[in-house]
Amino acid sequence: MFDLAKDTNAWACYDCGKCTGTCPIARAGATYSPRRHVLAANLGGGVKVVPDESLSACLTCSLCNQRCPADVDYTELVMRLREVAHGEGHEPECPHGGALQSVMRMMAKGGTTQDRLGWLTDDLNTDPERGGVFYWTGCAMYYDAFFPEFESNGLNGTKAAVRLLNALNVKPVVSPNERCCGHDLLWNGDRENFELLAEYNVNLVKESGASVLVTSCAECLRTWKLDYAPLLAGTDLRVCHLTEYLADNLDILEFSPDGQRKITFQDPCRLGRHLGIYDPPRQLLEAVPGIEFEEMGRKGPGAMCCAGGTWSNCDRFAKKMQVDRLREARATGAEMMVTACPKCQIHFRCAMNDPNLGDEITIEMRDIAEVIVEALAD
Amino acid sequence: MTPTKKGKASANPRKGSSAATKNKAAGGKRKPRTAGKTSTAATKPNAASKPAAKKTAAKPAEKKAAAKPPAAKTVAKEKPAWEPQLIVFACNWCSYAGADTAGVSRIQHQPNFRMIRVMCSGRIQPAFVLRAFEKGADGVLVSGCHFGDCHYIFGNERAAEQFKKTKNMIKLLGIEEGRLRLEWISAAEGARFAQVINEFTDQVRDLGPVPFSKSQPIEQTEDVA
């Protein structure tokens, strides 16, 4: 526990309470206090002091990390405390009954042949095994199957991403044997299964001979960049988000200027605060001639989270955060909110289903890849 | 066993079964009970007589008899090495009662399943089924009332919606579709319950264990021995 306090710099905490003050859950009205967790870690009490249900309430959005004057890595602390809790047999009350965690654990055990590439059409130029660029699809197909009621077609974003890579004359590897990156298991404290997935996935990508891994999912990106880093040591694999890759090759893309749409951008917490990628998506949106880009009030490092990043919590406070954010998006006058993470879409679309608020908070939502692929010149 | 049951049935005069009338003719409650006792007692000497007969046969044979249990174990190994383990979700009002009907009607069916009763099939969300597979079930049967018969009016329609989702998830994961089944079984359909269970068990047995399977070779033969 003391190592934990050292590793996450919790010992530097001077109890100012800024983390609790900025915490979106605390601000939404929950009796939740990051500071209390930091204090517990410093006292060495671990999860015995910290009630585990409040531990799973954290969004891990990293806003407190951003604001902490003492550089305490609270998000990392929560991840590690959850591991301790998991080890002691505390299982968080997962939303959706833990169905998605079950799916991930089954993938970790392996042994079946997934049918995950049903969305691939003939016009998409991909290779199932080898190539220089590996396109990491993520689990959009699972989410689409699980949330048909939200009409959140995450696969549209995936297809658009492949199309964009093809437009750059890249024939990406899209593997039928990809497994979940393990992000949510790791953030739910299940490091054992995470490590199984990590090892498998890293080998899969190594075998493909790829030197670049591109993904359009912010969570997969964080996992590959930070959590897989020890396994990737010694390789020269470059891991980047689709928006980064496109921004680097912006001069090759040709756009046709038709239509004018006002668009705002939702920074996914993993892409923004966890990895510091704020500019590439904005560069892209500004480069497309048909798009008028409008920022929301809270943007970049201060952007509001979709309140459901790790499938570990969903409650009335999450709902309040989502509704607030959607109101903010509507206030920009934009007709569409674009994001770069499939989960942001699922959670905001869920909030939009509120029958009492109805039109007040509805706004069209798309993945950034979809918007850009539409603007491509034929 | 059976005679005591008959005795119980006789306690309820409303059930005008032939057994009850027989009991009445025998003159009251006590007699069938004693009859039951005597009948079990009658079987006991039989059971006891077998080993006794062996003992009298020859003393060296005793060692052979002692060596028998391990022999039974090898027999268990020779049997099909694997038996499926199934989870059956059944709603309280129709399917569970249907299973009960199968039971009281003494309809034989395969015993490879564990039943989980829920109040309504509408409760069976994908997480339940996925968790069953994750924990090592080889097949999952979801059952509820026929459309129009739901105790909660439309719970089974919700169940069908949820099932569709579950099926899609299972397909993506690469688990064979034959391992998951949805059946509407009413309280009166005991025979159908047994038939569905037999069909489904055979189907899953043909598919073999799921990669996450926890099913072990069944130790039933050992227990019997």
| Number of H- or I-type helical stretches of chain B | 10
Q: What is the level 1 CATH name of the largest domain in chain B? A: Alpha Beta
User: How many structural domains can be distinguished in the coordinates of chain A?
Assistant: 3
What is the helix/strand order of chain A?
Answer: HHHHHHHHEHHHHEHHEHEHHEHEHEH
CATH architecture of the largest domain in chain A: 3-Layer(aba) Sandwich
Question: For the report, how would you describe the main beta sheet of chain B?
Answer: 4 strands, parallel
Task: Tell me the span between the first and last alpha carbons of chain B.
Answer: 20 Å
* Residue-averaged pLDDT of chain B: 74
Tally of helical segments of chain A: 20
CATH topology of the largest domain in chain B, by name, is Rossmann fold
Radius of gyration of chain A: 20 Å
CATH architecture assignment of the largest domain in chain B: 3-Layer(aba) Sandwich
Widest beta sheet: strand line-up of chain B? 2-1-3-4
Largest interface: A-B, 22 and 19 residues
Low-confidence stretches of chain A: none
Assign the structural class of chain A, choosing from mainly alpha, mainly beta, alpha/beta, alpha+beta, or little secondary structure: alpha/beta
Describe the overall structure:
The complex is a heterodimer of chains A (378) and B (225). Chain A is built from 20 helices and seven strands. Chain A has 378 residues and is of the alpha/beta class. Chain A has a four-stranded parallel sheet with strand order 5-4-6-7, sandwiched between helices. A three-stranded parallel sheet of chain A has the order 1-2-3. The mean pLDDT of chain A is 91. Chain B has two domains: 2-57; 86-207, Rossmann fold (3-Layer(aba) Sandwich). In chain B, 56% of the residues lie in helices and 10% in strands. Chain B contains ten helices and four strands. Chain A binds chain B through residues 96-99, 102-103, 105-107, 109-116, 141-142, 145-146, 148, and chain B through 125-128, 130-131, 133-134, 165, 168-169, 171-175, 210-212.
